[in-house]
UniProtKB/TrEMBL annotation:
Region of interest (Disordered), ranges: 1-21
Protein name, entry field: Helix-turn-helix domain-containing protein
Cited InterPro entries: DmsR-like_N, HTH_bacterioopsin, WH-like_DNA-bd_sf
Record-annotated DmsR-like N-terminal domain positions: 16-154
Pfam families listed in its UniProt record: DmsR_N, HTH_10
Annotated HTH bat-type domain residues: 173-225
Gene3D superfamilies in alphabetical order: Winged helix-like DNA-binding domain superfamily/Winged helix DNA-binding domain
Keywords: Transcription, Transcription regulation
């Protein structure tokens, strides 16, 4: 019979069966961050929150302060700090049982990352098994119009014979960013030596070279966040 310490050591040496899931929550109508994202060009990021008594305090980052002011359904948010290209906001509201993030946390599931874009709440979750993911989707029934699992990655095994697989969430890219990447790839922009330079790709897309560079940098940053986020 194994002792408690032996059992713990055995469990520590086992390869976990957990998953990394990207979940898109549509129709979370009572979420101020989602409301702000409907008027904002690009994602609302850096979403964090805390609870003190009956008060829910939330913080987020936005690149377009005017959009935050224009959005309906956003409580009066205090500007905390200006980071140059982004501004950090914070607001308070009463705690309630209709908050999607709170529903997930009450299932003992920390949220690894939260952001909102175009009225959709996008969450990254690290879960012990698929059953917990099913519990989350079921618990959100009635809180949201629809819950979409955008990607699912099983943890890499420790066996050297099994490759470390990572699934990239292309849903993070805008249609324009996908078009820029696809065109650049097809024209040989990423080849060495290049078959086409930035000016040629920009001309094919009918945009300025500076605009091409901006879209390309944004797309590459998102893809690198997906593949290197845990490194």
């Amino acid at each position: 019979m194994a002792t408690g310490s032996e059992s713990a050591g055995s469990r520590a040496g086992e390869t976990p069966d957990g998953v990394r899931a990207g979940v898109a929550i549509h129709g979370a109508g009572n979420c101020p961050v989602v409301a702000a994202s409907t008027a904002h060009d690009g994602p609302i990021t850096g979403v964090n929150w805390t609870h003190a008594g009956d008060t829910h305090t939330e913080e987020f980052r936005a690149r377009d302060p005017d959009a935050v002011d224009r959005a309906d359904g956003v409580p009066a948010a205090a500007s905390v700090v200006d980071l140059g290209d982004e501004r950090v906001y914070r607001y308070d509201r009463p705690r309630d049982g209709e908050c999607a993030c709170r529903v997930i946390e009450e299932l003992d599931c920390p949220i690894a990352d939260a952001r909102a874009e175009d009225g959709v709440l996008l969450l990254t979750l690290h879960l012990p098994d698929l059953e917990r993911l099913r519990d989350i989707v079921s618990a959100l029934d009635g809180i949201a119009d629809r819950v979409e699992v955008r990607y699912l990655v099983h943890g890499a095994a420790t066996d050297d014979a099994v490759p470390d697989r990572t699934l990239v969430d292309r849903g993070r890219l805008t249609d324009r960013q996908c078009e820029v990447l696809r065109t650049a790839y097809r024209m040989g922009y990423f080849e060495r030596p290049r078959d086409a330079n930035a000016s040629a790709v920009a001309e094919a897309l009918d945009i300025a070279p500076s605009t091409f560079a901006e879209h390309l940098a944004a797309a590459q940053r998102k893809l690198l966040e997906e593949t290197l986020g845990e490194v």
